[in-house]
Design goal:
three-stranded antiparallel β-sheet, alpha/beta, 12 strands, about 30% strand, Chitobiase, domain 2
């Protein structure tokens, strides 16, 4: 029996070495610090929710998500190729199987590019596809469909009003960026923070940040210079 264990351990070690040799340039999970650098020379698709009601909640996306996407796109590297698509244009979303569940499959032509998803799982089917926790390749935070708490892979959870998060994740070699707020206000605020990331160095660290944007002047819009309550970071 001991000899079998030794052989099995050697086989596992051999497989690990082979994988390391076969994937010397395996994609690393990006950090929020200097977040735009990861997209240099790459093709990125911005995915926002369709305004037409769709999906499990039959709700359409807010125009605020589009504003957030514009803010984020404005600081992309000059050598990045960017496209903008509605979630219904890039995701085949269907309900079925046994037991019946929702399925989310990338459509042909959209399986290799990096993705920036703006707007949460209620309105964006691409976000729904990645609303899970993975402590190694991300996303390291997600929305709990029962309580709408933000939950993270290290056990953190919050239901504070106006909560939002920004998180990196990997799908193979694809870099994914999830940008979401509990309301459209939070999603739009996340777009502002990504655009002016250099003004928020303590916030933009690690693989995922959970925060509350504060509307100091009460005009319903989060603007540069208004306060941000840092709640949690993963990977710092």
């Amino acid at each position: 029996m001991d000899r079998r264990k030794e052989i099995f351990a050697c086989l596992i070690l051999f497989m690990m070495v082979c994988c390391a040799v076969a994937m010397p340039n395996a994609q690393a999970l990006a950090s929020l610090d200097g977040w735009t650098n990861i997209y240099s020379g790459r093709t990125v698709i911005f995915v926002i929710g369709d305004s037409v009601p769709h999906g499990p909640w039959n709700i359409g996306a807010s125009a605020a998500d589009s504003i957030a996407a514009v803010d984020i796109a404005s600081v992309m590297p000059a050598d990045a190729t960017t496209l903008t698509r509605l979630d219904t244009e890039v995701i085949n979303e269907w309900y079925g199987g046994f037991p019946a569940i929702w399925h989310y499959d990338w459509k042909s032509g959209y399986t290799t590019q990096d993705i920036i998803m703006v707007g949460g799982p209620v309105v964006n089917s691409a976000f729904r596809k990645y609303n899970y926790l993975n402590a190694y390749s991300g996303p390291m935070c997600k929305w709990n469909y029962n309580t709408w708490a933000i939950q993270c892979s290290d056990g953190y959870s919050t239901t504070l009003a106006n909560r939002a998060f920004i998180a990196f994740a990997l799908d193979g070699s694809r870099q994914l960026l999830l940008v979401t707020g509990y309301t459209a206000f939070g999603t739009r605020a996340a777009g502002v923070i990504l655009k002016y990331a250099y003004l928020y160095p303590s916030l933009m660290r690690g693989y995922c940040v959970v925060f509350v944007p504060i509307d100091n002047d009460g005009d319903g819009i989060f603007e540069v210079g208004e306060s941000v309550l840092l709640l949690h970071q993963v990977g710092v």
